[in-house]
Design goal:
The complex is a heterodimer of chains A (about 300) and B (about 300). Chain A has about 300 residues and is mainly α. Chain A is built from 12 helices and 2 strands, in the order αββααααααααααα. Chain A has a two-stranded antiparallel ribbon. Chain B is built from 16 helices and no strands. In chain B, helix 5 runs antiparallel to helix 14 and helix 9 runs antiparallel to helix 12. The radius of gyration of chain B is 24 Å and the shape is globular.
Chain lengths: ~300, ~300
């Protein structure tokens, strides 16, 4: 690999030809992705929108019914139930995961001995295949023979219904996500904490700032872009990520207390084969995601501190 | 070439692995660290307890798993539960299906992600930035929105009950995160290499394959691990596209073991533990690529 620099003149002569050549080459290289994008992302999205304006049960040919599916949706009590359940789980579980992960990360950042061991222990549950961890927690929360009630009985408390009690099913799901969901934010926060310049803390020490002042005035502002980014991503991901967990543990029950929107869409599409109504629901989910992204990015302007102009 | 590769290694390595400087702190370790250890050990206990419960249950003889109060340490220790979990169910067959899908999708997916990421990073063509933004925005897209039309499409062309719906979309650059990670990495490789190769008459494809890819070991490993774990755990798509019992993956099969093949929790926990083994092995063998993937995708705003 000779690193001889080509002469400037040679480069100039070639540059316009190179441009055309690079255009061709560029599109050739992204062609597989472009095909995939058209066939499996953009195309299906448009198709879903079109299907949502029809009445189609797969048995008869589709029939154009305009906005009827969307009108039906706003009168559908299960739609509201599933949106409330989704909001309850995502807006509680994800911030709680981030807070817990941040607290642990702050602890582990204190140059303790055994940091690697702690880190592995808190990270490990997030690597458990979701189906396996859902089964495990179904067993832990088993009202008759489970670990959770065994522990309660040991300290003299009566057992609970956990996933099988409509009042406790959502908190139980959140508990599971607090076990399995902190691994990723923990690693991210640890890396983020290490990137806070020591000089800031040294300056704070000179000014006589205590640990709390250091946290509120240095650590938190410096981490805020990371926290914020992971909050949006986490909430959006949770709309989908809890599908497996809920389907395996409660199947949406008891009394629909854990039927989240994506589960409702799945049931409508692949249990009731009501493809057109399910498509309308799916598009509403997409619009919710879009709105959430937009709102959060607007909010970020006033509460997130970006160092320099690094954010892209 | 090697020197350059290992240099990239180090650049990647240093910010990614947070290891406390224990030696430095040893002399002046504050006393309240003891309290911190106490808190962390208590918390660790609760994080490990479900794993212990899984292992303990999986080694109990039939009937002992439903004793109340529970038997904490199985007596006797029944290792044969693991053999029963594997032989009494089609688990090994499901494992075969899962391995086929995961390996093919990962290999092709990583190749596609690197080629696309390379083009987005190093080739200049009109519309590049727009297309890259589109690519990244698919990360936010809820998969269920495209799932229904995909199902209808695959039904039309006879792909239901084949592995194709689980392989082809990924082979065509479906790993947007992988594309993003590869692009970020490719931007850091010096352009002199490309220029030199161009002078020698190499095209973009040649440069990608014989210069960029060999220099991108760490990021390729990171993408491969993310992709493999994704396919290993994938649930919704196999659930929809594979209705034939013989085509089930481990994730789908495991859920249906309950009720279909066994009701005993000791066997179910043995099967769950078995599903965790490959991921654990991968984790301990390639821990830093796990960490890298998370940090690279989670810190960037």
């Amino acid at each position: 690999m000779a690193a001889t620099a080509p002469s400037a003149r040679g480069l100039g002569r070639r540059s316009s030809r190179l441009w055309n050549q690079q255009t061709l080459e560029g599109y050739t290289c992204i062609l597989p992705w472009l095909m995939g994008f058209v066939c499996f992302v953009a195309g299906p999205m448009v198709a879903a929108l079109v299907i949502s304006f029809t009445d189609w049960s797969l048995l008869a040919p589709p029939e154009w019914i305009g906005l009827a599916n969307y009108e039906r949706l706003f009168k559908d009590p299960m739609f509201y139930t599933s949106v409330v359940n989704t909001a309850y789980l995502s807006f509680l579980a994800v911030p709680l995961q981030l807070i817990l992960a941040l607290l642990i990360a702050l602890g582990l950042n204190e140059k303790l001995s055994g940091v690697t061991i702690y880190r592995t222990i808190f990270y490990l549950p997030s690597q458990m295949p979701i189906v396996a961890s859902a089964l495990l927690w179904l067993w832990v929360f088993n009202p008759d023979f489970g670990l959770a009630n065994a522990l309660l009985n040991m300290v003299g408390l009566p057992g609970l219904g956990w996933l099988f009690d409509p009042a406790l099913s959502k908190p139980s799901i959140i508990l599971i996500t607090l076990w399995g969901g902190i691994g990723t934010p923990l690693i991210i926060f640890l890396a983020g904490l290490q990137s806070v310049p020591d000089s800031l803390y040294e300056a704070a020490d000179i000014d006589g700032a205590g640990p709390m002042a250091r946290f509120w005035n240095i650590t938190l502002p410096m981490l805020s872009p990371i926290i914020f980014f992971n909050l949006i991503i986490g909430i959006i991901a949770s709309f989908q990520a809890y599908f497996t967990l809920v389907l395996v543990t409660t199947q949406g029950g008891p009394a629909n207390s854990t039927t989240i929107l994506i589960l409702y869409i799945y049931y409508k599409a692949f249990r009731d084969f009501d493809m057109s109504y399910a498509s309308a629901l799916a598009w509403v989910l997409f619009l919710i995601v879009l709105a959430l992204t937009a709102i959060n990015f607007l909010l970020a302007r006033w509460w997130v501190h970006y160092e320099g102009g690094e954010a892209t | 070439m090697n020197a350059v590769a290992s240099q990239h290694d180090d650049v990647q390595h240093s910010p990614a692995i947070p290891t406390g400087g224990q030696a430095r702190a040893k002399s002046r370790r504050p006393s309240w660290h003891l309290a911190l250890h106490a808190v962390l050990i208590t918390l660790s206990f609760f994080y490990l307890l479900p794993f212990f419960w899984m292992l303990s249950t999986s080694l109990k003889m039939d009937g002992q798993e439903i004793a109340m109060p529970p038997v904490w340490i199985p007596d006797p220790v029944v290792w044969s539960n693991y053999v029963r979990a594997m032989t009494g169910t089609p688990m090994l067959w499901y494992l075969r299906n899962t391995v086929i899908i995961s390996v093919i999708s990962t290999v092709l997916g990583v190749l596609a992600a690197s080629l696309t990421g390379y083009a987005f990073a190093r080739l200049r063509f009109p519309g590049r930035n727009l297309l890259f933004s589109l690519c990244i925005s698919t990360l936010m897209l809820p998969g269920i929105v495209t799932l229904i039309p995909e199902f209808l499409l695959f039904r039309q062309i006879g792909w239901i009950n084949t592995f194709l719906p689980l392989i082809v979309p990924w082979s065509l650059g479906g790993h947007a995160l992988g594309i993003f990670l590869f692009r970020q990495y490719a931007l850091t490789i010096p352009y002199d290499f490309d220029e030199a190769a161009r002078v020698d008459g190499a095209g973009a494809f040649r440069i990608w394959w014989s210069i960029i890819v060999p220099l991108s070991g760490p990021v390729l490993a990171t993408i491969a691990i993310l992709a493999f774990i994704h396919h290993w755990n994938d649930f919704l798509r196999p659930l929809v596209f594979l209705q034939d019992k013989d085509l089930r993956t481990l994730a789908i099969g495991l859920r249906l073991f309950r009720g279909e093949f066994m009701v005993q929790w000791n066997l179910l926990m043995a099967a769950s533990a078995l599903m965790l083994v490959p991921i654990l092995a991968l984790f301990f063998a390639a821990q830093r690529y796990f960490v890298q993937g998370i940090v690279m995708s989670g810190i960037k705003g």
